[in-house]
């Protein structure tokens, strides 16, 4: 049994198996890195062409695009290197990967009560259990009030849901 994902490629809805989706996503990302940043029309044209190829292969809306079909379409579209060289870090605008601002969120995965300690641990790059222990010690020995924890619970937003989490919900 395979998981499937509904996606919109070139303004057309398709059902892809998860492996085909990942393969196609990496292919589009590779092309996107090679195109100039100010040319969004080109990426839309590439997606529209990919949708045309899939429409030729998929005979019914109930059919699922498989990895083999995605590879065949990618072969017809051509190698991403045909779109040029990848942009270098100096030519990209925006923050560098190492310079991205850190954001404080309450953790969705590392949580005992509200995810405050898990979020703080991720923000500072320490183990969540160590942050919980530190918080507990500060509460008991007067350095931190329980009200501060409750205020942080209210003020700190919850961590956004990642697209992967939407595809693979936790039971």
Key terms for this structure?
171 residues; mainly alpha; two-stranded antiparallel sheet; 7 helices; 7% strand
Overview of this protein structure:
The structure is a single chain. This protein is mostly helical. The chain has 2 domains: 80 residues, no CATH class; 70 residues, no CATH class. Strands 1-2 form a two-stranded antiparallel ribbon. α2 packs across α3. The radius of gyration is 23 Å and the shape is elongated. The two termini are 18 Å apart. 16% of the residues are buried.
Furnish the topology, listing elements before pairings.
Layout: E1 4-9, E2 12-17, H1 18-34, H2 40-57, H3 67-77, H4 116-124, H5 128-140, H6 146-155, H7 163-167
Antiparallel strand pairs: 1-2
How do the SSEs run, as a string of H and E?
EEHHHHHHH
Cα-based radius of gyration, to the nearest Å? 23 Å
By secondary-structure content and strand pairing, the structural class works out as mainly alpha
Describe the strand arrangement of the main beta sheet, using strand numbers.
Answer: 1-2
Helix segment count? 7
Helix content: 40-55%
Percentage of β-strand residues:
5-15%
Main sheet: strands, sense, barrel: 2 strands, antiparallel
| Overall outline | elongated
Average pLDDT taken over every residue? 79
How far apart are the termini? Answer: 18 Å
Q: Unreliable stretches, pLDDT < 50, 5 or more residues?
A: 90-95
């Amino acid at each position: 049994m395979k998981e499937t994902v509904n996606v919109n490629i070139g303004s057309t809805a398709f059902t892809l198996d998860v492996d085909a989706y990942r393969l196609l996503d990496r292919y589009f990302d590779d092309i996107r890195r090679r195109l100039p940043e100010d040319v969004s029309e080109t990426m839309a044209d590439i997606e529209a062409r990919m949708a045309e190829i899939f429409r030729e292969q998929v005979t019914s809306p109930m059919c699922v695009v498989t990895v083999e079909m995605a590879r065949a379409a990618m072969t017809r579209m051509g190698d991403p290197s045909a779109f040029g060289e990848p942009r270098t870090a100096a030519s990209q605008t925006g923050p560098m990967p190492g310079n991205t601002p850190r954001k404080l969120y309450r953790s969705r995965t590392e949580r005992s009560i509200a995810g405050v300690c898990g979020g703080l641990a991720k923000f500072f790059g320490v183990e969540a259990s160590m942050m919980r222990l530190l918080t507990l010690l500060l509460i008991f020995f007067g350095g931190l009030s329980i009200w501060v924890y409750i205020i942080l619970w209210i003020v700190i937003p919850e961590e956004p849901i990642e697209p992967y989490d939407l595809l693979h919900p936790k039971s």
